[in-house]
Amino acid sequence: MRRGFVSKQYSFRRENRCALCICVLMLLSIPVLMFFQLDWAAYVVLGIGGFAFYLLFQAYQRKVTDFFDQVNEGMDQMLSMGSDVFLPEVEDHENVFSRFVSKLSRLYGAMRVAEENADEEKRVMQGMIADLSHQIKTPVANIKMDLELLSKRQMSPKRQQEFLGRTLHEADKMDFLIQSIIKMSRLESGAIQILPEQADLARTLANALLSVSAGASQKEIGITVDCPQPLIVRHDPKWTEEALFNLLDNAVKYSAQAETIEIRVEMREAGVYLLITDHGMGIPEEWQGAVFSKFFRAPSVHNLPGAGVGLYLTRQILEAQGCYVTVKSAVGEGSTFSVQFLG
């Protein structure tokens, strides 16, 4: 990013030194001449000094005018958000003009950063809309197809229930996606306040486990928990439960039938660590840094349900209260998600 270029260098030292010399000469010579009663000479010196000041003022005025003309051109370039902005440079670094140009250059830098951030936000928003459209398109098409079949064909009550159940499942998927997008948007805009407090993390974990128990039972997945009770840790119970649910839901989703998920708490110097380990398919090393990104889904899981927002929300929620979440994984062995609470 280019924040500005030097169009012309200015120095006001010469004018300042000349003015100082004239003042010193006049202050020294006039009293001496008056003392020797050379009044005419004193008036001559005063006249020469005044004329010198006039010439100096004219030169100073021209330089200042030229300086601000250059500043004006630079500001026009700034307003047009050009990539190359030329600003004058003042050699006297403690000069008021130098400070002015320095602040102007910093202002332009901030404007460029803001413009780049706006471009990035626009790009992300366009990507989000495209991803959202892609995610919603499939359930909407399935719902439409099932409803058309229900309206045009004579079916047995059992068959009708199958179609209705499938339609409700697709509607639930779409509702989950939309709700996730809303939460994500509210978190990013600051509309949701996350307020950590001293609360029982064991209870928060238990509530999150209740939400995934049905899915775990369907796959005959066992869940072991090693957590002291109570476990008073600074966190927002409501939103931390949401974050832990996302981690547990992923563990259930990507675990094979009849596997085991282990949850344990470790007390370390750096804080309280909650570790969730599954023995599922694992995450390839090249994708581990991206799993917390918005709408990210590894190519190997595109055939499984999901929208790619759960882990992104998890990181946003945890980081908003000073916590950290990381992952260690090996393909074919499983993954361990580690959440650090600062106590």
From TrEMBL:
One Gene Ontology molecular-function label: phosphoprotein phosphatase activity
Transmembrane feature ranges: 16-34, 40-57
Domain of life assignment: Bacteria
Signal peptide start and end residues: none
Keywords assigned by UniProt, alphabetized: Kinase, Membrane, Phosphoprotein, Transferase, Transmembrane, Transmembrane helix, Two-component regulatory system
Entries under Pfam families matching the protein: HATPase_c, HisKA
Cell compartments where the protein resides: Membrane
EC number(s) stated in the UniProt entry for this protein: 2.7.13.3
Keyword NAD among record annotations: no
GO terms, biological process: cellular response to phosphate starvation
SUPFAM superfamilies in UniProt: ATPase domain of HSP90 chaperone/DNA topoisomerase II/histidine kinase (SSF55874), Homodimeric domain of signal transducing histidine kinase (SSF47384)
Reactions catalysed, as given in the entry: ATP + protein L-histidine = ADP + protein N-phospho-L-histidine
InterPro entries named among the record's database cross-references: BphY/WalK/GraS-like, HATPase_C_sf, HATPase_dom, His_kinase_dom, HisK_dim/P_dom, HisK_dim/P_sf, Sig_transdc_His_kin-like_C
GO cellular component: plasma membrane
Sequence ranges assigned to domain Histidine kinase in this UniProt record: 131-343
Name of the top EC class for this enzyme: transferase
Classification via SMART domains: HATPase_c (SM00387), HisKA (SM00388)
Protein name: histidine kinase
